[in-house]
Amino acid sequence: MDPALKTMIDNMPAKTGKSLDEWKKLLKTKSFPKHSEGVKYLKTEHGVTHGFANTIVTLSKEENHAAEDLVASQYQGKEVLFPIYEALIKVVHSLGDDVTITPKKESVSIIRKRQFVLIKPATKTRIDLGFKLKDKPVKGRLENSGPFGTMCTHRVKLSEVSEIDEELKGWIREAYEKSV
Hints:
- The protein is an alpha+beta fold.
- The protein has two domains: 62 residues; 101 residues.
- It contains seven helices and six strands.
- Strands 1-2-3-4-6-5 form a six-stranded antiparallel sheet, with helices on both faces.
- The model has no long low-confidence stretch (mean pLDDT 89).
């Protein structure tokens, strides 16, 4: 299990009042067709912060799929991209202990108090890296959010590990710092 995810799960009782297993039992009594509806329910009815609510719903829905399995399935047939993913995760881990890495079916959300980066293997040869960088101009390889819509404000397309340069790391850090 990802160390950041394990820390979040370990901290869940103190921060939310219930363990992950207790939240899973509660959510089994409910039916939410959309992920966002489950998140909204936990936030409005139980006062759970967005990061915890998102993680609880994700892990409840995908109870039979470990986080590693979710990531592995994203890169099935796209194995050439996995070293890029690993390098991005290494950068994210360097930001601080308050970062949560939440794998989903098709992407991985990077969350502080809210999502600030989204990693998605978009094609067999490209990862789309989404950012929340409000008021930052679109320029050069820092494109508009494209298919991410409102989940992100910007996107960078990555095809090689070498594209994770100081400029890109700077945007990741900036998104992290703005996510408080």
